[in-house]
Design brief:
This protein is an alpha+beta fold and 592 residues long. It folds into four domains: 31-134, Immunoglobulin-like; 144-275, Immunoglobulin-like; 287-410, Sandwich (Immunoglobulin-like), CATH 2.60.40; 480-591, Four Helix Bundle (Hemerythrin (Met), subunit A) (Up-down Bundle), CATH 1.20.120.330. It has nine helices and 30 strands. The chain has helices at residues 2-26, 140-146, 409-412, 450-478, 480-501, 506-525, 534-543, 548-563, 571-591; strands at 31-35, 39-41, 46-52, 57-60, 67-82, 85-98, 102-106, 110-113, 116-119, 123-128, 148-154, 165-173, 178-186, 193-198, 206-210, 213-227, 231-235, 239-251, 257-267, 271-275, 287-300, 304-305, 311-321, 337-339, 343-351, 354-367, 371-375, 379-384, 389-394, 398-402. β28 (379-384) and β29 form a beta hairpin. α6 (506-525) runs antiparallel to α8 (548-563). The model is unreliable at 1-26 and 412-432 (pLDDT under 50).
């Protein structure tokens, strides 16, 4: 019996150590480079993927000497739970095109994981002569790379300074693949441009062609630009990560084609505009930077009035052009008319062809004297990019007739001097009061008074209050759990308020909303961020007798916060999520 048991232990104990060793090995960091091919033709493409089994930072790609980078890096992350065990992988992918034949090397890439630096091994690739069919066999990423294109369509590449330029970002998708989702990686910054984003409220798919082949196209982003500087100006590229379903050669049980999911990073590429300066020849002295096609008018609310009454004079420019980017001309009025600072009004809408509408300066004018006062003609100059010439518009002269009021003596006789005031001799200082009738205020000493003793005793009376204040403060500081709850409550209110301010800005709104929900859980359930999981949250809330609808609503909000990073959410959806968060927190407060 003991011999049998000894043999059994002799076998089992080493096996248990081997199992623990295998588990320890599974926890080791793995960082390696994988190639789609080790031998390829000069006209083929190579897919290089650097993968790791733990989250890393500060990834440095190798120098791809002898290769041209067609695409990359494309970052993808996968995480799954199988039988209670977490599986994680992260990869950086490049698509390369060889530039010469021979044996080429893919150097070492490096990354930092948990504070340590890791390097991949060197890979060798043999590049041969060009092959007749370079695309066989193709991987799912190769198919996505060939059938997905992001293009920035520019309305003008050689505009004038301050002339409208429209940039439309279009995604072309081949009918052979299906786009499931996308997320922006880099949004372009329009330096040296006045920009106006034109939101795309509905994604309409159209049948079109790209490089002579049939494609489906959809507009993802539109922006109107007004260059503020002449010369060569660059428009930064827009980059997106697109998730697609690519057909394979396999069939399912019912004969349908099996699709494989792939992701691709697409970029619209940098575009350069050659902005022409406005010509100096023929530029009017009254030109203030208006570019477009405009109409100009000056009008008054009334032409006849009495002194001390008011009227409105409007200087208005309407039409199509850079209406928000120039100054309106100012009227020159007689000194007898009192003029207040103008009120600026604009009624401008931006379309794909640029700004159109009108801008107005309204002047309030109050005449002080009786008479007739002319408002001279005003000139407004603008540059028309269609004709390449300057135009000057002049308003009509307007006369204001003041019917009743005092006469302006200085205006009637400009040479007259103001009358001299005669003062009788000996009366020069008659306005000075010589008998002020001063009265005595008596003697009022501070020392020995009630105020003196009150000021003396008040600090002594405050000593117990100060002692009580510091005692309560020490007690409050010692309450670590209570302080954490109060801090979390304060942060939850803060972030929920921050989320309300970010309505309309998807990323900022859902980040603030997620922080508010997490801090609320910290306050009520006394758990840390590292312990957050939907299963644990649901279990703790059910233990606290929170209703199933409130728990489901809370988890749905957390799910929406996660999905918002990869999916387009509308303003209506954001408003609904904010209202739902307020209602769910109110329901949970009643139970907790």
């Amino acid at each position: 019996m003991f011999d049998y048991l000894g043999k059994y232990l002799f076998i089992v104990i080493p096996l248990s150590f081997l199992g623990q060793f295998a588990l320890a090995q599974n926890d080791d960091v793995v960082f390696e480079a994988n190639l789609s091919k080790e031998k390829l033709g000069l006209n083929e493409r190579l897919r290089v993927e650097f993968t790791m089994n733990k989250n890393g930072d500060n990834f440095n790609a190798p120098n791809f000497n002898g290769f041209k980078v067609i695409m990359g890096p494309s970052l993808s992350t996968r995480s799954s739970w199988i039988n209670g065990k977490r599986s994680y992988s992260q990869s950086y992918t490049y698509i390369l095109q060889p530039e010469k034949k021979g044996t080429l090397k893919i150097g070492q890439a490096s990354i930092e994981i948990s504070g340590k630096s890791y390097k991949s091994s060197v890979k060798e690739v043999v590049v041969t002569d060009a092959v007749e069919n370079p695309n066989a066999p193709k991987t799912a990423d190769d198919v996505a790379d060939e059938n997905l294109h992001l293009v920035a369509e520019v309305s003008k590449t050689n505009p004038y300074l301050n002339e409208a330029v429209t940039v439309v970002y279009k995604l072309y998708v081949s009918p052979t693949i299906n786009v499931t989702n996308y997320r922006p990686l880099d949004n372009p910054k329009f330096n040296n441009f006045w920009s106006q984003d034109m939101p795309v409220t509905k994604y309409n798919t159209q049948n079109s062609t790209y490089k002579g082949k049939p494609y489906r196209s959809v507009v993802l982003k539109r922006v109107v630009l007004y260059p503020q500087k002449s010369g060569k100006l660059s428009i930064e590229p827009l980059s997106l990560e697109i998730y697609v379903d690519v057909p394979t050669d396999r069939r399912d049980f019912f004969g349908g084609r099996v699709y494989k999911q792939a992701s691709k990073t697409v970029s619209a590429g940098k575009r350069t505009l050659n902005v022409k300066p406005l010509p100096e020849t023929g530029k009017p002295a009254t030109f203030t930077g208006a570019v477009g096609d405009f109409e100009f008018s000056v009008s008054t609310s009334k032409s006849s009035l009495n002194a001390s009454e008011s009227l409105q004079a409007k200087v208005e420019v309407s039409g199509k052009g850079n209406l928000k980017l120039f100054q309106l001309p100012e009227p020159s009025l007689p000194s007898a008319l009192e003029v207040y600072e103008p009120e600026f009004e604009e009624s401008v809408r931006t379309t794909l062809s640029g700004m159109e509408g009108k801008v107005t300066n309204s002047y309030t004018i109050v005449p002080a004297f009786k008479g007739r006062y002319p408002i001279p003609s005003i000139s407004f100059s603008y540059f028309n990019p269609k004709t390449g010439k300057y135009n000057t518009l002049n308003s009509d002269e307007i006369t204001i007739n003041v019917l009743e009021g005092p006469n302006n003596v200085s205006a009637q006789s400009p040479a007259a001097t103001s009358p001299k005031i005669l003062v009788a001799e000996g009366k020069q200082f008659h306005f000075i009061k010589l008998n002020p009738n001063l009265s005595s205020i008596g003697t009022n000493y501070f020392f020995g008074s009630r105020r003196f003793y009150l000021a003396l005793l008040l600090p002594l009376l405050l000593i117990p209050l100060v002692i009580l204040f510091f005692k309560e403060r020490r007690k409050k500081n010692a309450d670590v759990a209570g302080n954490r709850i109060r801090t979390a409550n304060r942060l939850a209110r803060k972030y929920l308020s921050a989320a309300k301010k970010q309505l309309g800005n998807k990323e900022a709104f859902y980040v603030a909303l997620e922080k508010a929900l997490h801090n609320y859980l910290k306050a009520k359930l006394k758990i840390e961020t590292s312990e957050f999981s939907k299963e644990k949250i649901a279990g703790l809330l059910e233990e606290k007798a929170v209703s199933a609808s409130a728990v489901s609503g809370f988890l749905d909000l957390l799910k929406n916060c996660e999905m918002a990073r990869y999916s387009p959410f509308s303003n209506v959806q954001m408003q609904q999520d904010y209202t739902k968060a307020s209602n769910v927190i109110t329901q949970m407060d009643k139970a907790l």
